[in-house]
Amino acid sequence: MQIQVVKSKIHRVSVTGADLNYIGSITIDEALMEAANIIEGEKVSIVNVNNGERLETYAIKGNRNSGDVTLNGPAARRVHKGDIIIIISYGILDFEEAKSFKPTLVFPNETNNTLT
Predict the structure, then answer these.
(1) Signal sequence: where (predicted)?
(2) Is 27 assigned to a binding site?
(3) I need a surface site. Which of 15, 44, 59, 101 has the fewest CB within 10 A?
């Protein structure tokens, strides 16, 4: 049997922008993506701490060390600049392997720089 588990999490990062006219996705500072072991195009879940909204999209690289976290396309309607969000990615593992798997957790500071 296989189960879905948390693979990576960027915990409590600040939204720096919302671009309704972009085709979709979330732009994430490349350094944050690397620290969290998230790759470009990977499906991610977004949880908005400010309003409880939850959505799924895919990650695209933002400029390294920019602190950029921008929701694009329709997702831009579900966040505001300054909202605090949690970005989560999942993996599928065999049940026994999942018991000992440890996700990558990133706790950025107030300027969205990585502190793991």
Answers:
(1) none
(2) no
(3) 101
